[in-house]
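Notebook entry, structure prediction.
Reason for the run: the old model in the group folder had no record of what sequence produced it. Starting over properly, with the input documented here first.
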Amino acid sequence: MAYSPLTPFSEYLQVEQSKYPELTLDEIQKLKESLEDDQTLPPISDKKYLAFLHSCHFDIELAKKTIKKCYQFHFRIPQVFCELDPLDDDMELNYNCLSICQMPTANTNKNDRVLFMMFQDTNHEIFEYLSLFKYLTMWMNYTLLKYGTCDGMVIVIDSKGLNWRHIVKIPIGIASKMLKFLEVGLPIRLKAVHVLNAGSATQMIMKMVTRFANQELIEKIKLHPAGSNDIFNYISRNELPEEVGGFGKSHTFFNDELYNDLIDMRDVFLEQNEVLSNQMKYVNQQHDQNDD
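New structure, fully documented this time:
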């Protein structure tokens, strides 16, 4: 089932419980109450509490820690999490540079959900990692609001066209924090990252990843060299676009679809920006008062 951002929580909960009976209102309330005195956190929606409880396999204590870590990273790198607008020029540039595709199995059941990525334009001058991180942050919020929870998120990246000119543009400080966020702050279950056409440029990135990431995250990354069809041992051809041997439509179709869906959800992102910005100001004011 696909939701709209205006779907009432009661309806959202009912459908999510049909997928995961462990998502009870009582458990969600316990999680909320465990954090109600934490003034460092912004207002959090019931849908987001549900997502964290699910991502942590219904462990309230782990969900509590994950929520705290999540918003710590929001405020450490606000340029990624707190300045989201799908109509910004950098988002349009990212849309033209990269195809980022929510594959169509998302609304069928609770099984693994596939996000596919590949270059549309390999010109390193128009490629920006910060724009990519922001776009993926919007996707993460979008997929939870529109499709709810699932067993696991699988990211498939076709790295064809990646070269050293893209690598040297990596903002190490932000990228290292994003890796830590993937480890401890996600409101989704990240199952695997598959990299197709992996070559020397991919190996350069992996050297950086192994420097900053923990073993659990590293083990989720699987590299597939050029010419390999091993990806289809993990993912059905029905869930991938035709450009990589799948039976789906062209990546450009799915890229357009997601981009337009993000634009339709623009008001949600702008409201979230304001909430996070106000919370960040409040936290900074508290720190300043404590320093006096």
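Summary: The first helix runs from residue 9 to 19.
The old model has been moved to the deprecated folder.
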